[in-house]
Each structure stands twice: as C-alpha cells, then as structure tokens.
Amino acid sequence: MVRLNTNGTIDATFNSGTGPNNNVNAIALLPDGSMVIGGSFTPVNGVARAGLAKLSSIGVLDPLFPSGAGISGSGTPSIDAIGLLPDGRLLVGGNFTQVHGVSRSRIARLLSTGEGDVTFDPGYGAGSNVRCMAVQSDGKVVVGGSFSMFDGVVRHMLARLNTDGSVDMNFPVQSGIGFGVFALAMLPDGDMLAGGEFTELNDTGKNRLARVNGGDVFVAVSPRVFLQGPYDSGAQTMSDALRAAALVPSIEPYTALGYAHVAGGGGTSVLPSVLAATGNNAIVDHVVVELRHATTPSVVVATRGALVQRDGDAVGMDGSSPVILYVAPGNYHVAIHHRNHLGVMSAGPITLSSTTTTVDFTLPATATHGSSAQANIGSRTVLWAGDVTGDGELKYIGNGNDRDPILLAIGGSTPTNTVTGYLNADVNLDGVVRYIGADNDRDPILLNIGGSTPTAVRLEQVP
Questions:
Q1: End-to-end Cα separation, the chain, in angstroms
Q2: Is 441 within 8 Å of 425 (Cβ atoms)?
Q3: What's the Rg (C-alpha) of the chain?
Q4: pLDDT of residue 205
Q5: Cα separations (Å) of 89 from 108, 135, 440?
Q6: Of the candidates 138, 167, 220, 242, which lies 20 to 30 Å from 400 by C-alpha distance?
Q7: Spatial contact of 175 and 198, defined as CB atoms under 8 Å apart
Q8: CB 343 within 8 A of CB 337
Q9: Euclidean distance between CA atoms 166 and 150, whole angstroms
Q10: Mind listing the pLDDT tens digit for each residue in 78-99?
C-alpha cells in the first residue's frame, strides 16, 4: 500500500511495512484519518489479518482491530466493499460465508472495534459476490454485485437493506441487468451513480454507467389501452405485426421524436427475449405512461416508457412488470400516449402507491378527461389513430395535416408505392405505409375526423 501526494508522488510519511500479502479491494477512511482496509490478504506486515485490517494515518497496523478471526469461506475469501455508517459502524461485503466465526453470506456489519455486530442479520444474504455499496443518510445501504437473489428475494445486481439487514421491499426490483454492478457512489440529491459491466440498468439501455434513483419513492401502475390502428374488433386484441416483422425498436422511440421525459422516464429498452413472446402477451409497440398533477393536470410530474401487449396491457420493459414511476405515492391523473395516436388521460386523479393500480382505458365506463377522448368500437374504447405528425391533432388537409406525410413517406409522386419500416406514417401499425388501396393509412384519418368534412379537426383531450 502507498499514499500519494496531491501531485501524484509517493508520500514517504506513510509506511505500512511489508503491507498486505494479497489484494486490497476496499478502503474506508475514518474521521480521525485512520483507515480500514479489506481484501483477500491473510497477513498485513507479517501480522495475521484475514481480509480485514485497520491502519493509522501513517500506515501503522492497529493491533486491536479487528477483535476477531476475520473472514472465511470457500475458495479465496475476500472483502470487496466497505461502507462507513453514520454511527461509526462498518458494513463489509465481498465473497465470504463467515465473519469472526458467525455465519454471514457476503455481507456483515462490524462495530467500530471490528467486532461482528450480531444485531445486523441479512438472513441468507447475497446469492453471489457483493462488490460495492453506498450508504444512505438514514443508515440504509444499497449494495451492488453479481447476485440475482438477496435473502431469497429477487434482486438483480442491486438491493437496498434496512438497518437490521433485511431487504428493503420499497426499493424497486432493478430488472434487466445482465451483468454485475461493481461501483456505487452517493450523490448529494440522494440518487446514486452505478458502474459495472452492464449494458442495461432498470430496464434502461445504459452502457456500464448509470444514474439510479435512490428508490425511496415510487408508484406502480398497470394501464390497459387499445390502439385503434392495429385493433381487431372481432378478437378484441391488437395485431403484433410490427413485432412479427422485427420492426419494434429495442430503445423507446419517444426521446428521439422530441418527447421530453420527466423524472428519469426516458431511454428505456427492451431485451430480444421480450420481443420473442407470442400470443396475447406479444408486444405491439412502445407507449409512454404519464402521471399528471392532481389539481393542475397540465403539469407532467413523471413519465415512463412502457410496452403495450396485444391484449392491451401496458407493462414494464421486462414484458410483465407494472410500470414504475419515480414519484411519491399520492393522487395523480394517469395518461398514456402513442406516437401516432391521440393520447388519453383519466378524468380525475387516481390514488397510486407501490402496490400497482389498474387503469383500464379499454372500458367505456372509465371516465376520461375532455369530450370523445377515444373512439368507441363495440364494447371497447380505443385511442384515435392517425396523428402522424404527433402534434395532438388529426387533420386531413391544411397546414400540418397528417395525410401528406404518408404520401411523402412512399416517395411523394406515385401513390401506389409502399414502404416498409417503423414509421409514424404507418397508422395501422402493420409495418407497411400505403397511401391508397386496401389497408391504406390515409383513410383512417378522414374517418376519424368525421368522414365527410375534410376540413374538420379532432383534438387530443389531454391538456
């Protein structure tokens, strides 16, 4: 071990002798300038220390710390993370099964003397290595690593523990993390920075570095909605033609279209396995779920990219979970948007909490804001199709109309042309843009504004 001066040169006043005989993986600086180190070493400067030791500010080994046998376990036991708690106690994580002879699976709490704190009991602990941790101001700790379970609870690479060691169930499951979280740092606002070898974090495409909500507050909602474009009134389901043609993008498209997400709702991404599902749970397309202020519904307080399935369920990016939005539990208007359909919003605020609430926009009995917010098809209601420009209006002629972009998409001069792709001009979401003929994308716009007066305009009923 060495200590460096601010200019990067070695500080000669720090001397730990021969030092540890193996890796030092973690260091926690204490208020008095001393430090606790963790790693896979067994002696430090020739003195037996199994993975844990304390040094003075100049590198002298503390002969009284730890007051126990250190860590043990199969393979090469190690301490890979150390967190200093507000009361001076220490949390240690790594690859071990015992601390000072007491069973502790990869995480333990120590008294300031280094003695094991038996009042902290994480149960079965982490299913695999704990690699990093971040201590919150209330004494709770967020741990990261390569585990998928914590004390028998599904937690993909991230978990938050209460002060007694139990899993904090109010910290939402971080799903879709394919690889480990190796570094965590607390930010002044309570959020965290997470680093590792992942390419997704919390269902969002993040390449090895992400900012993570502290997890103290969130609500869950399970909307249901039908999109008129792909809706089959006979089956009362939607077509998943875009998915079947491998046209549904892996990253939500709304940010690229200029939509301003709020409270970390953008950049969500979907794994290929989710898009492989068939049947009623097959993915139709991406949507956006919004929460709006209870008394001023024009104010958006949180958003989240989500997926809509053939049966109308709007789900998280794992294809099954409720949609999570990072706001405090309370009363909110719930709105849902699609890139070429008019959005819809609940007429009144709805009480939301961490236990999911279903908001079913497919039922005519569900009160919605405004007048004729959705189209009625049989016993169901569906979002109005045809907002190709995404401006909240259906227009057939005139400036900013939704018909001309369809003609432009197929080339602009030969109306019989077609084009395939994930395009806003594809009103019926069959993957093919057509201007005339069967299943064309132009006629639904004229029908939805009334069918006989081409100058009519239909407005979205979301303020």
A1: 61
A2: yes
A3: 28
A4: 67
A5: 11, 11, 68
A6: 242
A7: no
A8: yes
A9: 9
A10: 999 999 988 888 999 999 999 9
- Sequence letter at residue 154: V
Handedness of CA 321, 323, 328, 332 (dihedral sign): negative
Q: Are strands 350-352 and 43-44 parallel, antiparallel or unpaired?
A: unpaired
Nearest to 100, CA basis, from 122, 80, 71, 77: 71
Residue 440, both tokens: 């064309």
CA nearest neighbour of 371 among 260, 462, 255, 280 = 462
> Cα separation of 424 and 429, whole Å?
9
- Is 134 strand, coil or helix? strand
Q: Which residue has the tokens 């997400």?
A: 261
415: DSSP letter: T
Please tell me what DSSP assigns to residue 266: -
Q: Which parts of the chain have pLDDT scores under 70?
A: 172-178, 188-190, 201-205, 213-217
The set of residues, in sequence order, having a beta carbon less than 8 Å from that of 161 and lying 6+ positions away, is 107, 122, 140, 141, 142, 143, 150, 167, 168
Query: Count H helices, E strands: the chain?
Result: 4, 38
Peptide bond into 66 cis (omega under 30): yes
Residues 6 or more apart whose CB falls under 8 angstroms from that of 40 comprise 22, 23, 25, 51, 76, 77, 78, 79
